[in-house]
Amino acid sequence: MKMSLTTTSKLHNGVEIPSLGLGVYKVEDGQSVYDTVMSALEIGYRHIDTASFYENEEGVGKAIRESGIPREEIFVTTKVWNDEQGYENTKQAFQNSLDRLGLDYVDLYLVHWPVPGKYKETWKALEEFYEDGKARAIGVSNFLPHHLEDLLSDVKIRPMINQIELHPQLTQVETREYCKKHDILIQAWSPLGKARYLDDPTLTELAEKYSKTPAQIIIRWEFQSDIITIPKSVHAKRQKENADIFDFELTSDEIKHIDALDQDKRTGPHPDEFNY
Questions:
Q1: Where is this site: Lowers pKa of active site Tyr (predicted)?
Q2: What is the chain's percent helix, strand, coil content, to nearest 5?
Q3: What pLDDT was estimated at residue 3?
Q4: CB burial readout 145-160, b (16+ within 10 A) else e
Q5: In the beta sheet, which residues pair with residue 228?
């Protein structure tokens, strides 16, 4: 089967999520995010990841609605921010996100960070959105095994995804193994490590071998490692480049060499040290 931007991974509830999508963190609302999403959809992306914290849901929704693409063909993710958490607050936050997006439902709703003392109540609200059909899938973001262990002890519905910072210098093996054991798919944010080490010799040598860029090598490594990934770019040329990873395959040895770049090095905060 030919892999492409419509290639999907299956969540444990049977919902299919495109394995490669577009992230829009720090893309300004209005024309900027509208153009960014529109160009991605024109290229063939069918998975858009936003959040209330990004303050660009309105522009994202407008592009989706005006793209001419049937709503059911586009996978839309948004998230509840830390100061919106707790059962009642989350119900309001979710409705606010739907209103800003101008959509009747989202495909995936995530708890953005494991706010101590709140994420369990937040999760109860997410279970309701799922049962009501307002969210086709629900999940968490930035949860470590101990957060998941705590959450799973008290849920009706298991998270379907854990979106975490993940790139070759932060491979998060322990969290990935825990999630695999519990049938929770992994999604990578900051999948290119904010482009901080694209000149690494392992990546540049592979890029040369396959006539690709180091960024394409990383995205392919994630794809072959069963990691859903959402690289961000506001430029159509780069969006196209990020999607051009389906015409080559890394060997198992090459995957191991990239795995070995891990330094437990984050570009964002550690979930246990975040200033909640």
A1: 79
A2: 40, 15, 40
A3: 72
A4: bebbeebeeeeebebb
A5: 187
Angle at 152 between CA 147 and CA 153, to 5 degrees: 105
**Domain definitions of the chain by residue range:** 16-259
Tell me which residue of 171, 170, 122 sits closest to 147, measured CA to CA: 122
For residue 1, pLDDT over 60 is answered with: no
Is 112 annotated as a binding-site member?
Answer: yes
DSSP structure class, residue 28 = P
Q: What is the 3-state secondary structure (H, E, C) of 83-118?
A: HHCCHHHHHHHHHHHHHHHCCCCECEEEECCCCCCC
Cross-strand bridge partners of residue 17: 9
Residues 182 and 143: beta-carbon distance below 8 Å: no
Asked if the 16-259 domain carries CATH number 3.20.20.100, the reply is yes
Phi, psi (rounded to 5 degrees) for 29: -65, 165
**CB distance 254 to 212 below 8 Å:** no
Q: What percent of the chain has pLDDT over 90?
A: 97
Find the mean pLDDT for residues 245-258.
97
Mean pLDDT of the chain: 97
Other beta carbons less than 10 A from residue 37's beta carbon: 27
